[in-house]
């Protein structure tokens, strides 16, 4: 695991990938993709930003776990996102979602299994947490768009038949909550 961005890794990237159906044993390791012809859509003005936001968890996961991820891509968006998600106000959310990721469970299932008092405490800060996670997702989507060419080249070199289906992932909305 990337020691510099534990919250971004566990709460955003891993949690979103688990929610999207990636196998728990794959998360935290180098991931391969399929349907890379779909990644060329990042260059389209209309669909590109939307796909960048939806693929942001995969790109963040690659940036944190893949040693071959391009070094020339600036990591400042990762630093800002880590700082935002690590705010003390969201400690209960981050602890719960990080534990779910470590256990290989999806965030939604984990939240639903919590006792009523825990769910009630989470509900009080849910709107603020959702707004923050949407802000982080938009920031990371913009980061992916700004680096679309190297990201596209990187994932075109990471093809495997049993890899993560980019076409299917494009239909998923990332959730940090």
Please sum up the structure shown.
The protein has 177 residues and is mostly helical. Helix content is 59%, strand content 2%. The mean pLDDT is 87.
Summarize model confidence as the mean pLDDT: 87
Shape designation: globular
How many whole angstroms does the radius of gyration measure? 16 Å
Number of strands: 2
Spatial separation of the terminal alpha carbons: 21 Å
Number of domains: 1
Task: Output the strand order for the largest sheet.
Answer: 1-2
Give the class from helix and strand content and strand pairing: mainly alpha
Helix content: 55-70%
Low-confidence stretches: none
Count helical runs: 9
The helix/strand series, from N terminus to C terminus, equals HEHHHHHHHEH
Strand content: under 5%
Q: The biggest beta sheet, please?
A: 2 strands, parallel
Characterise this structure.
The protein is mainly α and 177 residues long. It has one domain (6-169). It contains nine helices and two strands. The chain has helices at 6-19, 48-65, 76-85, 91-103, 107-112, 116-124, 126-146, 148-156, 166-169, and strands at 33-34, 164-165. The protein has a two-stranded parallel ribbon. Helix 2 packs across helix 7 and helix 3 (76-85) packs antiparallel against helix 7. The longest helix has 21 residues, at 126-146. The mean pLDDT is 87.
């Amino acid at each position: 695991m990337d020691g510099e961005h534990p919250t971004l890794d566990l709460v955003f990237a891993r949690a979103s990938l688990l929610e999207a159906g990636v196998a728990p044993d794959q998360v935290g390791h180098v991931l391969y993709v399929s349907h890379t012809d779909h990644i060329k859509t990042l260059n389209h003005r209309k669909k590109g930003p939307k796909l960048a936001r939806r693929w942001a968890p995969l790109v963040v996961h690659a940036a944190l776990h893949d040693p071959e991820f391009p070094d020339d891509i600036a990591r400042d968006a990762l630093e800002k996102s880590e700082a935002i998600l690590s705010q003390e106000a969201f400690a209960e959310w981050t602890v719960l979602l990080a534990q779910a990721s470590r256990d290989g469970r999806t965030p939604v299932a984990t939240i639903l299994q919590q006792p009523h008092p825990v769910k009630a405490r989470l509900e009080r800060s849910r709107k603020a947490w959702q707004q923050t996670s949407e802000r982080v997702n938009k920031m990371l989507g913009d980061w992916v768009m700004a680096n679309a060419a190297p990201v596209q080249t990187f994932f075109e070199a990471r093809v495997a038949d049993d890899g993560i289906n980019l076409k299917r992932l494009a239909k998923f909305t990332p959730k940090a909550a």
